[in-house]
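Before a colleague's protein record goes any further, I have to sign it off. Thanks in advance; the entry in question is below:
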Amino acid sequence: MAKAYRNYVLAGLSGLLMALAYPGWSFNLSFLLWIGLVPLIFVFSLDLSRKQFFLTGFTAGLVYFLIIFRWFWSLYPLNTLGIKNPLASIAIIFTVYALCC
């Protein structure tokens, strides 16, 4: 069972490194893309079931998109759309953020 957790940690690390290599940041870490692919390729080279194969890839993608779509939270006050309630505003933004990620 500990091996499965290690696979998910490596997939999450891969997603994190690939997100840091995204060109939208103010600093240049584009070389991390190649380093970020190494843990994911290592996990995929193991003998995994189809379910574990999917879940590790899903974990890497989820971490990647959670970081890349962080700009959704800059939309927080939805006053321009006519939504004055801050809780409804947070709920709408979180729902759209979760669906996109």
Observations:
- The mean pLDDT is 85.
- The chain has four helices and no strands.
- Helices lie at 2-20, 32-45, 50-68, 86-100.
- Residues 30 and 88 are 37 Å apart (CA to CA).
